[in-house]
Design brief:
Elements (H helix, E strand, L loop, with lengths): L1 H4 L1 E6 L4 E5 L2 E2 H5 L5 E5 H7 L11 E2 L4 E6 L7 H9 L12 H9 L12 E6 L6 E6 L2 H10 L3 H15 L11 E4 L2 E4 L3 E7 L4 E8 L1
Parallel strand pairs: 1-6
Antiparallel strand pairs: 1-2, 3-5, 4-6, 7-8, 8-12, 9-10, 11-12
């Protein structure tokens, strides 16, 4: 009886169950299971797929149930791997990390999980010909997809601008040149230079400065 109370229950995805004597660290459990993480059953119950895995140094608690789960694998061709190798790596925090997550960290586009699949767009602009700032809020999943499908950060920025133009009905940011007529003479409007930066709340600011 006393021995049972000091054991933690670990379940695999195939239904196999293990009972481990505590105290035991998560690292001791996953050392024989590459690409696996340990999830607290209570965390899975409350957060679902967003449940945070145990850190390697965390202890499994007696009389608790844990899940041993394998991380999903994503095929990576040589070109994609080359792009990832060019990106400077940053210190990682706890959790499930993948290539897209590393790139999100680099671009500072993600600080917290976003489960809402809706997106909202708000726009503020000054007088014609002046600087313009556009603010977009996108789901984290959509940002990760953009990063996976893009070769570099410049292409990510271009796709984000295209998204804004599409959501605003074809108006808004214009990376090309527009032609206006003044007194019978045609003149080329000044182009907009677009850059982007992220805030702490999954918001992307597109800053356009007149060239």
């Amino acid at each position: 009886m006393g021995g049972r109370r000091k054991k933690a229950k670990v379940m695999k995805i195939n239904g196999e169950t293990m009972k481990l004597k505590t105290p035991i660290e998560a690292s001791e459990l996953i050392k024989d299971y590459p690409d696996h993480v340990v999830l607290d059953s209570d965390a899975v119950k409350h957060f679902g797929v967003r449940a945070k895995p145990l850190e390697p140094q965390q202890h499994l608690q007696p009389n608790k149930t844990y899940f041993l789960v394998q991380l999903p694998k994503f095929p990576e061709d040589d070109h994609h791997q080359e792009n990832l190798n060019r990106v400077p790596r940053r210190v990682k925090s706890g959790g499930i990390h993948m290539g897209a997550k590393d790139r999100l960290d680099l671009l500072m586009l993600s600080r917290r999980a976003v489960s809402d699949l809706s997106s909202s767009v708000s726009t503020t602009a000054t007088a014609a010909g002046g600087p313009m700032r556009v603010k977009m809020r996108l789901p984290k999943a959509q940002l990760e997809r953009l990063l996976e499908e893009s070769k570099d950060e410049a292409e990510v920025a271009e796709k984000i601008v295209d998204l804004y133009v599409e959501k605003s009905g074809g108006g808004g940011v214009n990376g090309g040149a527009a032609t206006t007529r003044h007194g019978g003479n045609y003149s080329k409007a000044r182009e907009k230079r677009v850059s982007f930066a992220a805030t702490n709340e999954e918001e992307i600011h597109l800053d356009g400065a007149s060239l």
